[in-house]
Design goal:
Layout: E1 25-29, E2 35-40, H1 41-50, E3 54-59, E4 66-70, H2 72-89, E5 95-100, H3 106-121, E6 125-131, H4 140-153, E7 158-167, E8 170-177
Parallel strand pairs: 1-4, 5-6
Antiparallel strand pairs: 1-2, 3-4, 6-8, 7-8
């Protein structure tokens, strides 16, 4: 009787391992990368167990499915590392929103502009919104003045992507990072102090 190694994949996107493999025969590649040809699945499992490794279905859509003999724990670790590196290389840009009122006081204004600048420095787009309540709708020019101040205060870091416009009770504009900021620079390594002579 074959006792398969106990690896249970719990995610749909993970490959089938050992006893999870449903095909009756597989195209087998050993742990040295040699193609052993089409083999009945129980024989492939026995071979992987003799080498104290796992049988992993790497191409389930093939006919028959392609399986490799390998260390599944190590394989998963390397796969996760590759995925993490790929995610790091992708530019991760999201839209942040900062809300203000037309009668915003100076302290709140400064705090929110600092947040906008910080988001732009991190490479995010920022939606700046002015919320009008009740009678404030009669003074839309005050909201536009606040947005003009924001534009002036973030000038070197961001550029206006969409001009201020009304959306219901909000006046909104979209700001995106300047081209010079769009590629984040890697942090500089501190210089080592020279040894005393």
């Amino acid at each position: 009787m074959i006792i398969s190694n106990t690896h249970v994949s719990n995610k749909d996107d993970e490959p089938r391992v050992n006893s999870e493999i449903r095909a009756t025969e597989v195209l087998l590649i050993d742990d040295q990368g040699n193609k052993l040809g089409v083999v009945p699945t129980p024989d492939a499992l026995r071979l992987s167990e003799e080498r104290d490794l796992d049988l992993v279905e790497v191409a389930p859509q093939a006919t028959p499915p392609v399986c490799r003999i390998l260390d599944y724990g190590k394989y998963r670790f390397q796969q996760q590392k590759r995925d993490k590196d790929a995610r790091k290389k992708q530019k991760n840009q999201t839209v942040k929103e900062i809300k203000m009122r037309p009668k915003i006081d100076q302290h709140d204004y400064d705090f929110k502009v600092r947040a906008v600048r910080s988001f732009l420095e991190d490479g995010h787009r920022v939606k700046v919104s002015i919320f009008f309540r009740g009678r404030e709708m009669a003074f839309l020019d005050r909201g536009r003045e606040v947005l003009n101040r924001v534009m002036a205060d973030i000038d070197p870091l961001g550029k206006v992507e969409t001009e201020p416009r009304m959306e219901g009770a909000y006046m909104r504009m979209m700001v995106s990072p300047s081209a010079s900021l769009s590629v984040p620079q890697p942090p500089q390594k501190p210089e080592r102090p020279k040894p005393a002579e």
